[in-house]
Amino acid sequence: MKYDASQIKVRNIPDLEQLEDGKCCRTYVYCFTNPLPEQNVIDQIANSLEKRFTFSKEVYEIPEDVEICASIFIEGLQDNEARVRVLTNQLEEVCVYIFGISTLPRKIEERFGIVQSIQGEQRETWITDRR
């Protein structure tokens, strides 16, 4: 397969924030083509999107097993717009970063309907259709 510069997608990734409680987060703004459900339904869906990553001490040759949790908080802003926060207990690991920019947008779209934009950028910048 050949690659060229036209295949590079530049995304408007929000800065990593260090919160007072020691957690880290990135906050994305999603815009959908349809209205969002009530906040209590949004909260239930956000809880189901939480992702845990486990690193085995045997596989990664580290002193003990490590579990990293990416918690998802979604706040409806307007009828079709939401603030999506991806939080971790410690400094963000690469697995959480990749989850937030790659896997999570597709999962959110599966639950809430077609994403129009993320961070003001068109859907195609963030979500590629599988063929």
**Strand-pairing-aware structural class:** alpha+beta
Q: Could you list the spans in which at least 5 consecutive residues all have pLDDT below 50?
A: none
| Through-space gap between termini | 16 Å
H and E order: EEHEHEEHEEH
Secondary structure layout:
Elements: E1 17-18, E2 24-32, H1 39-48, E3 51-55, H2 57-60, E4 66-78, E5 81-88, H3 94-112, E6 115-118, E7 121-122, H4 123-126
Antiparallel strand pairs: 1-2, 2-5, 2-6, 3-4, 4-5, 6-7
Could you describe the 3D structure shown?
The protein has 131 residues and is α+β, with helices and mostly antiparallel strands. Helix content is 28%, strand content 33%. It contains four helices and seven strands. Strands 1, 2, 3, 4, 5, 6 and 7 form a seven-stranded antiparallel beta sheet that branches. It starts with 16 loop residues before the first strand and ends in a 5-residue tail after the last helix.
Characterize this entry briefly.
The protein has helices at residues 39-48, 57-60, 94-112, 123-126; strands at 17-18, 24-32, 51-55, 66-78, 81-88, 115-118, 121-122. The chain is of the alpha+beta class.
